[in-house]
Design goal:
The protein has six helices and seven strands, in the order H-H-H-H-H-H-E-E-E-E-E-E-E. The chain is an alpha+beta fold and 179 residues long. The chain has two domains: 74 residues, 434 Repressor (Amino-terminal Domain) (Orthogonal Bundle), CATH 1.10.260.40; 99 residues, Ribbon (Umud Fragment, subunit A), CATH 2.10.109.10. Helix 2 crosses helix 3.
Length: 179
């Protein structure tokens, strides 16, 4: 949308409001709303705040067509689906992560389909942690910390330290602690 007037009108229509209804919500007359929408008047700051509240949009978006810098992370997060990823016990030697039934599921905001969680006692033994893995990533395509099987143990290692005989479980994408 190119300008303030089109953003006000399209947001009003999206909310299913008439000009008169928006006027009531913002404390102005219906002709004033018509003037905003045809571009002959620009709402004052205090009224712009009420318009944003009535339409469920940020006033900065009404003015500029973009979100404030701090809101980008929130907007990106809100666009990602919540997936319930299976959480398995940390494997013992010779097992895979999905060797038994899932111990539970963890809601996780992501676009990725191939995630799983591995539950283990932290090294300090004061809390548990879930390591979330993307099982489709490989060190040749994406650097990071990987979970691998090495010498009958399952360890975390940087992609640069992976050996040719390591079994790669996946790329660590999150580490969550539970006390």
């Amino acid at each position: 949308m190119e300008n303030l007037q089109s953003r006000i009108k399209s947001s009003r229509v999206d909310q299913g409001l008439s000009q008169a209804a928006l006027a009531d919500l913002t404390g102005v007359s219906q002709p004033t709303v018509a003037n905003w929408e045809n571009g002959s008047h620009t709402p004052r700051h205090s009224v712009l705040m009420r318009i944003g509240e009535a339409l469920g949009v940020e006033p900065i978006w009404l003015l500029s067509g973009s979100f404030a810098e701090g809101d980008k992370a929130v907007q990106n997060y809100m666009k990602r689906p919540i997936r319930h990823i299976p959480v398995y016990s940390w494997p013992v030697s010779g097992q895979t992560f999905a060797a038994g039934p899932a111990r539970g599921y963890l809601p996780f905001s992501t676009h990725h389909d191939h995630l799983l969680g591995a539950l283990r006692l932290r090294e300090d033994e004061e809390a548990y942690e879930v390591i979330v893995l993307n099982t489709q990533e490989h060190p040749s395509t994406k650097p990071g910390r990987y979970i691998v099987a090495r010498d009958k143990a399952v360890i975390m290692t940087p992609s640069s330290d992976i050996l040719s005989d390591d079994k790669i479980y996946g790329l660590m994408v999150a580490r969550l602690s539970y006390y």
